[in-house]
């Protein structure tokens, strides 16, 4: 008699077939629709009305026939594979036998059975949506975790140093592990180099295709070029015309040597890709120290390189180079140093983080909070929080106003939080008043659809492993708290740079949480002890499960939300040279480096290395007619970023036609180029 705890091979085969059919039906249904990636925010899914069940759509019989056809082939293949495994079940009962593998697979695929709820809701009149996709990714990740947990192979051997380190509780010295193997280092280096090459090429193509505007990396390119030519961080779009008057980011000066070697906009694009790739190294060191396993730590580093939230920092909606991107490796470095208790490195990483942008004080404050709660080091934690607050007030109340010549307040407050008040104290008072007087309504207003979408896209790529350590997630709390109350909806989009400070946090929390799990600490450790009570095998089983879960979740998210040519949402038009972009390149060749230029927004990114640049629309501090002092005026009559309503360029063109001191040089595609002739208007 077969025990209920040990199903027969036939039942296991049926379970595998059912799981495969559920996945096939989901994929067949979901991929009939489309969802917006780059071109719309937030991401929304669109299912064809003709395929919905009900009036004007499919009949229930047609829907059932469609689902059955979609599931037939993969279900038949899965059933055949399972029956073959069952046929050889009696060949042996060792840990590596077909019977053990079949048992492992049948235990691992049970999450896929929940996928039947989705086509069931479809038959009742519902339609696929983004929740379907998130459920599929979660259940796939969970299945991969279970597969690693129950795989019948023996635990991998570890070095004696690793065994000793793993057997001692608490934090270990950083020299408890032997150096990583050359193969591990080579794979990590290859992954980082591949990331740098791929995203540098993609974003440079995006730039030359005319799909990066003057904001934001154009500001920095212009400021660095002018610094090399005698005008310190001069950028005409600010008042006063200096970049530090906008955001206090002295880290820009560290880029000067590289920009001096290659004074081109593309240098900043490559710098962004290098910064993101370098963050994978301290994350690998962190995971290796916590898990005492090179291969699993390597999986975490690869997961970071596949993370759509990191990939989009180089391309797509990132608007090119951002100072916060440079902070990402410093934040990862500070997390690694924090756990290793390398305090000199820790303080240096924090100072470099603060030098990137004053808005990063929130995540630095969170690091101090994490130091106190997670590691019990309240003395250093309070010191970090005090430094973060002091730096924020020093920059916003003293440095930036001084650089502005005393004119104007810190505009970020009114731009993002003006609906709450005009000062830090007013904003905080309003926030706490809302929470105290109407907590339920406040929570309902704050946690809207876009917030849940954002949380899913930040946590699901790590198979929700970050939730194993809520104390480590506290690092993100201050920044996330302020994001909730902002009036800028783009804060909650993985396509934009506003969430840069949070990119590292889920990986830090996952590394800590997994360690707690295989040490038997917390609810996860207790659950794993029940699932795999074998002495000595728990740690290897957990790390195997973690590796598979991370890779499964990461690859799925990279496919569905990443900006690479292999992703579902890849927009080839972003990187495709068009007649318009080629026309812009020819216009650029006509204008010498010693000339001054006035141009529209997207074209402005290509003239940051000119003697004087004016980009429309001009800031309020500049005279509107200052553009007519430029040597060349290049206008794009179809610039959806700089002139979306086409109300700015036509009056300028009309004026240029009437001015004798300008002549038409070229007209190509949507571009019109005028050159100053020196002839004055007659009296």
What would you note in describing this structure?
The termini are far apart. Strand 3 (596-599), helix 27 and strand 4 (612-615) form a beta-alpha-beta unit. With 683 residues, the protein is mainly alpha-helical. Residues 88-96 and 155-175 have low confidence and may be disordered. It contains 28 helices and 7 strands. Helix 1 packs antiparallel against helix 2 (60-87), helix 3 runs antiparallel to helix 5 (130-150) and helix 11 (294-306) packs parallel to helix 25.
Question: Which features characterize this protein?
Answer:
683 residues; mainly alpha; 5-stranded mixed sheet; two-stranded antiparallel ribbon; 28 helices
Task: Describe, in short, the structure shown.
By secondary structure, this protein is mainly alpha-helical. It is built from 28 helices and 7 strands. Helix 7 (182-208) packs parallel to helix 11 (294-306).
Estimate the strand proportion.
under 5%
Q: Count the strands?
A: 7
**In DSSP terms, counting alpha (H) and pi (I) runs of 4 or more, how many helices?**
28
Q: Unreliable stretches, pLDDT < 50, 5 or more residues?
A: 88-96, 155-175
End-to-end distance, in Å?
Answer: 110 Å
What structural class is derived from the secondary structure elements? mainly alpha
- Biggest sheet, spatial arrangement of strands: 4-3-5-7-6
Overall morphology: globular
Helical proportion, percent range: 55-70%
Overall radius of gyration: 29 Å
In round numbers, the mean pLDDT is 83
Main beta sheet, described? 5 strands, mixed
């Amino acid at each position: 008699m077969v025990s209920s705890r040990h199903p027969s091979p036939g039942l296991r085969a049926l379970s595998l077939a059912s799981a495969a059919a559920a996945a096939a039906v989901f994929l067949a249904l979901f991929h009939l629709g489309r969802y917006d990636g780059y071109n719309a925010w937030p991401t929304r899914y669109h299912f064809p009305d003709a395929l919905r069940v009900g009036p004007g759509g499919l009949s229930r019989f047609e829907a059932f026939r469609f689902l059955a056809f979609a599931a037939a082939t993969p279900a038949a293949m899965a059933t055949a594979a399972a029956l073959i495994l069952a046929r050889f079940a009696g060949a042996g009962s060792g840990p590596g036998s077909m019977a053990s593998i079949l048992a492992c697979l049948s235990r691992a695929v049970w999450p896929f059975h929940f996928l039947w709820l989705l086509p069931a809701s479809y038959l009742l009149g519902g339609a696929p949506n983004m929740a379907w996709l998130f459920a599929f990714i979660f259940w796939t990740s969970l299945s991969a975790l279970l597969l690693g947990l129950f795989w019948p192979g023996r635990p991998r051997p570890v070095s004696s140093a690793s065994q000793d380190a793993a057997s001692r509780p608490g934090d270990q010295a950083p020299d408890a592990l032997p150096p990583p193997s050359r193969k591990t280092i080579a794979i990590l280096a290859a992954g980082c180099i591949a990331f740098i090459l791929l995203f540098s090429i993609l974003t440079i193509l995006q730039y030359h295709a005319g799909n990066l505007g003057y904001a934001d990396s154009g500001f920095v390119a212009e400021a660095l070029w002018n610094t090399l030519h005698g005008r310190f961080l001069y950028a005409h779009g600010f008042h006063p015309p200096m970049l530090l008057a906008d955001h206090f980011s002295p880290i820009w000066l560290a880029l000067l040597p590289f920009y001096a070697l290659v004074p081109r906009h593309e240098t900043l694009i490559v710098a962004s890709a290098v910064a993101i790739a370098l963050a994978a190294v301290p994350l690998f060191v962190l995971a290796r120290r916590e898990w005492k396993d090179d291969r699993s730590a390597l999986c975490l580093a690869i997961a970071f390189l596949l993370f759509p939230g990191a990939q989009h920092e180089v391309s797509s909606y990132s608007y090119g180079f951002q100072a916060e991107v440079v902070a990402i490796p410093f934040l990862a470095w500070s997390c690694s140093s924090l756990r290793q208790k390398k305090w000199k490195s820790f303080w240096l990483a924090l100072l470099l983080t603060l030098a990137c942008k004053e808005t990063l004080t929130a995540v630095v404050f969170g690091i101090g909070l994490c130091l106190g709660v997670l590691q019990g080091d309240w003395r250093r934690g309070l010191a970090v929080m005090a430094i973060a607050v002091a730096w924020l007030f020093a920059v916003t109340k003293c440095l930036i106003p001084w650089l502005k010549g005393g004119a104007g307040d810190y505009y970020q407050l009114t731009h993002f939080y003006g609906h709450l008040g005009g000062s830090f104290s007013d904003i905080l008072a309003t926030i706490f008043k809302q929470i105290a007087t109407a907590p339920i309504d406040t929570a309902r207003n704050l946690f809207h659809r876009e917030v849940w979408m954002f949380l899913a896209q930040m946590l699901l790529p790590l198979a929700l492993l970050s939730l194993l350590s809520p104390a480590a997630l506290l690092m993100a709390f201050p920044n996330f708290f302020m994001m909730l109350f902002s009036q800028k909806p783009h804060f909650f989009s993985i396509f934009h740079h506003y969430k840069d400070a949070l990119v590292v946090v889920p990986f830090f929390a996952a590394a800590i949480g997994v360690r707690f799990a295989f040490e038997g600490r917390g609810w996860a450790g207790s659950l794993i002890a029940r699932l795999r009570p074998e002495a000595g095998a728990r740690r290897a089983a957990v790390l195997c499960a973690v590796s598979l879960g991370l890779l499964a979740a990461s690859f799925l998210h990279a496919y569905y939300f990443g900006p690479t040519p292999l992703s579902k949402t890849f927009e080839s038009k972003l990187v495709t040279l068009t007649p318009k972009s080629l026309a812009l390149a020819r216009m650029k060749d006509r204008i010498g480096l010693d000339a001054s230029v006035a141009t529209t927004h997207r074209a402005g990114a290509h003239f940051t290395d000119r003697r004087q640049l004016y980009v429309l629309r001009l800031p309020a501090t500049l005279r509107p007619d200052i553009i007519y002092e430029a040597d060349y005026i290049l206008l794009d009559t179809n610039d959806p970023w700089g002139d979306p309503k086409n109300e700015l360029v036509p009056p300028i063109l009309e004026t240029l036609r009437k001015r004798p001191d300008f002549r038409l040089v070229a007209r190509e595609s949507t571009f019109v180029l005028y050159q100053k002739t020196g002839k004055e208007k007659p009296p």
